[in-house]
Amino acid sequence: MRILNPLRIAFKAIILNKVRSLLTMLGIIIGVASVIAMLAIGEGSKESIRATITSMGSNMITVRPGSDVRGGVKQERSAMETLKLTDYLALKEEASLLTYISPLVNGSGQVISGSNNWPSSIYGVNPDYLKIKTTELQSGSMFTDAEVQTAAKVAVIGQTVVDNIFPDGKDPIGQMIRFNNIPFTVIGVLEVKGENTFGQDQDDIVIAPYTTVQKRILAVDFLESIVASSINEEKAPEAVLQVSEIMRTQHKLTESTANDFNVKSMEELISTFSSTSEMLTLLLVAVASISLLIGGIGIMNIMYVSVKERTKEIGLRLAVGGKESDILMQFLIEAILISLTGGFLGVTLGLSATFFIENFLNWPTSVTSYSIIISFAVCAVTGIFFGWYPARKASALDPITALRYE
Questions:
Q1: Structural domain boundaries, residue 98
Q2: Can you say whether residue 219 is alpha, beta or left, with left for phi > 0 and alpha for psi between -120 and 50 degrees?
Q3: What is the pLDDT of residues 270-310, one digit of tens each?
Q4: What's the CA gap between 175 and 152, in Å, rounded?
Q5: Is 77 among the domain residues?
């Protein structure tokens, strides 16, 4: 019962000064709403990045040429020709932590069918590529190892290529297309994946045997990269080390010689982007938290005003036997009640803002329960912290001086 009476008095004081109380809560409301919205945007971005990278193959490991110094000039990775087919064969034979592995060469050019053409990219791979990239076929079939060995002129194309070179809706399976004037027979169409978080159209692609692309399109004998998938995500770091050891042996590198290749896993990429996203989220939350600080100062100001306005009431309560702890509790409860009410309204506004951002601005968001719990906890702490001093000052008033106050 002791807590109920101060609670009723505090609630009545807030109701009697509705406009003033609402203006006091405004800083808390905006602060909490901002924190929830910023955390939702940060978490949504992180999940979107993870989903995008996972859709590219969550266990994927990529081996690329490393930069090198020749004649005092640092060469670009794209200019390096350190990856050979023998590297791919060595990894395929010796890497026990890899499930699928494929060479990769790629180029760009025009895809032509009749009078229709479209600029696209061609990727030369083997049949394992679709399993590494966790991609399915919408129709048709993937080329076989036998077609890779014979450098067959067959291709699997993405939906964007289909839409642009077969605008009349013709079934592309079995049709003849040309890429940079080299004829290919379409044997499959990839499932639709759309754009990823980085704005790249994942359906604007032509896939063909790597031997065909090497010999007929690019006229090269080296590989631009080697892609593989580890047994599972947990084994990816071990697989990276194993691949590095095999590659160093294959390239006959001594202990003092730097790698002329780079090995990266998707987990590293996810970690890098996630850490960047977390830093941005913390920055946004820090900026939003300033509103909470301003809201707390507003609560302190209004409690000072309340103490001044009710000085005679405080003196009367103390004169008839009220304890200092009762006065302290009364004003402290009032401050906490203002803060928590502002927190509730702030959470409601934050959730509404998140809904608007996701559905009308098309930004990925994800509201977590901990952001709401933290917001309420911060509101309670703010109410106690900024309400304590005015409440303590009220409880320390001298009854006689308070009764004489005008």
A1: 83-259
A2: left
A3: 666 666 667 777 776 777 677 777 777 777 777 777 777 66
A4: 15
A5: no
